[in-house]
Design brief:
This protein is mainly alpha-helical. About 65% of the residues lie in helices and about 0% in strands. It has one domain.
Length: about 70
């Protein structure tokens, strides 16, 4: 069992993906900076945030909402 959500491979991959998306969106045109880029960044961060939030849940039925 994991002691921290940061030890979970799924969280690590989601975190790496978010990091790559942040780097990738730096190359987008300025016109997309506040629409498409913002949406991509928020959704990428949301994945790792949901995994982290579900880690603290006690019941399986609660965890299902986040996976």
């Amino acid at each position: 069992m994991y002691k921290s959500f940061e030890e979970m491979p799924v969280w690590q991959k989601a975190f790496d993906l978010a990091d790559k998306i942040y780097d990738f969106t730096e190359e987008f045109p300025k016109a997309e900076m506040y629409s498409l880029c913002d949406q991509l960044k928020r959704s990428a961060v949301s994945v790792s945030a949901n995994v982290a939030e579900s880690f603290g849940r006690q019941h399986t039925s609660d965890k299902i909402n986040f996976y």
